[in-house]
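fwd from M.: "can u put these together and see what the complex looks like"

so here's what she sent:
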Amino acid sequence: MPELPEVETTRRGIAPHLLGRCVRTVVIRNPHLRWTVPLALATELPGQTLHAVERRAKYLLLRTGHGTVIVHLGMSGSLRVVDESLPAGPYDHVDLVFSGGKCLRLRDPRRFGAILWTQTDPAQHALLRDLGPEPLAPEFTAAWLGACMHGRRAAVRDLLLNARIVAGVGNIYANEALFRAGIRPGRRGGRLSHADCSRLVSSIRVILRRAIAAGGTTLRDFQNAEGDPGHFQRALSVYGRAGHPCRRCGTPVKALAIGQRRAFFCPHCQR
DNA sequence: CTTTTGACCTGACAGC
DNA sequence: TGCTGTCAGGTCAAAA
């Protein structure tokens, strides 16, 4: 479900409620997520004060003085700040209960998400250490993208989903950025020119910034920390719009199966 | 090394 | 109404 803009929307939503608060208890109702929820979360976290809520790629990092909680929302995960008295639903697997009665509740029907605990530098964690640059950071340049694309036969859409190349871009925004850059999703990475890479870098930045400003994209179930949906789905140019007219030229948008995941493009506006 | 495939889960929806 | 099949925002691990 959530790509970078949805995770960032979640981060901004939960941070003001929780910063400076102390964890009172951890409730693990179902530990069977992508990786088993570590028992250390329940033994080490209570008593710790949350002093930062950061995001790296699609991971959220909840920093305390003695360790960091790493959260990934997978395909169907969401985090909400609720009153601890609110009854938990069947997919509410983990609660971090804070002093004052507020509770950070992780819901994840498909259980592809994760919540982990590390007492060392999270940037060196096996899940984070090989991530590529943040797309909104200055290290993400046309030169970097060009070097990553060089000699690659895979579809550019798939290379954009590769977190070692750029961190946090998922299927929606990869397709949207490729539309904006005028590049077909099935083009082989190695066939991109420097000008293509340059347009793609700026397109990714623009699309992600706009999506964050809109509070993310809600296709079926994304909701922010307050339980509200995002609004970027109204601004989608191609994703999920197969058969509908291109907003720029009117040509019907095409869908293509690339690997196991669908790609969307305008055959007139994208080459 | 790169690329492809399977795996992990449940819900929503289309079609019969 | 109810069944079956397909698809979904992610990404790791193993196979080719």
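replying to her w this: Residues 1-3, 6, 34, 58, 72-76, 110, 112-113, 127, 161, 163, 170-173, 217, 219-222, 239, 261-262 of chain A lie near DNA strand C (CB under 10 Å from a C1').
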